[in-house]
Amino acid sequence: MYIDVYVVNKLKGLIRPFYVRYLNRIIPRKYFYSTKKYPFLGTSFPIPNHSVQLLEFWYGKDWRTPKSNAPSNDEDPRGTYLEKHCRFLFRPIHKIIK
């Protein structure tokens, strides 16, 4: 058994109240508004209260079905428009407002 540990980072600019960053992914902050403690190997870790919805967002509705030969999310070259263009759209606006 193994466990993935994800560290999310705050974003800057106008999208900061609504999104967080994990690696090169932009994730709606709503999944991280509230957490609950989850026991694992004698230690409690904070996990999102709505972890199933986060897994559906991250992997799709069929997240419970293993996919052979599929790239991991951090290797997946696809992505949303926001993810691909965030640095061009929001950083300049942040600098102007600041």
Give an overview in words.
This protein has 98 residues and is of the alpha+beta class. Helices cover 26% and strands 22% of the residues. The chain is built from 3 helices and 5 strands; from the N terminus they run E-E-E-E-E-H-H-H. It has a 3-stranded antiparallel beta sheet with strand order 1-2-3, with no helix packed on it. A two-stranded antiparallel sheet has the order 4-5. Strand 1 (9-10) and strand 2 (19-22) form a beta hairpin. The termini are far apart. Mean pLDDT is 66; it is low at 75-79.
Describe the protein's topology.
Layout: E1 9-10, E2 19-22, E3 25-28, E4 35-40, E5 43-48, H1 51-59, H2 81-89, H3 91-97
Antiparallel strand pairs: 1-2, 2-3, 4-5
Count of the domains = 1
Q: Specify Rg, calculated over alpha carbons.
A: 16 Å
Strand order of the largest sheet: 1-2-3
Low-confidence stretches: 75-79
Distance between the termini: 46 Å
User: How many separate helices?
Assistant: 3
Q: Please tell me the overall pLDDT.
A: 66
Largest sheet: 3 strands, antiparallel
User: What general form does the structure show?
Assistant: globular
Structural class: alpha+beta
* Beta-strand share of residues: 15-25%
User: Would you report the number of β strands?
Assistant: 5
Helix content: 25-40%
Order of helices and strands: EEEEEHHH
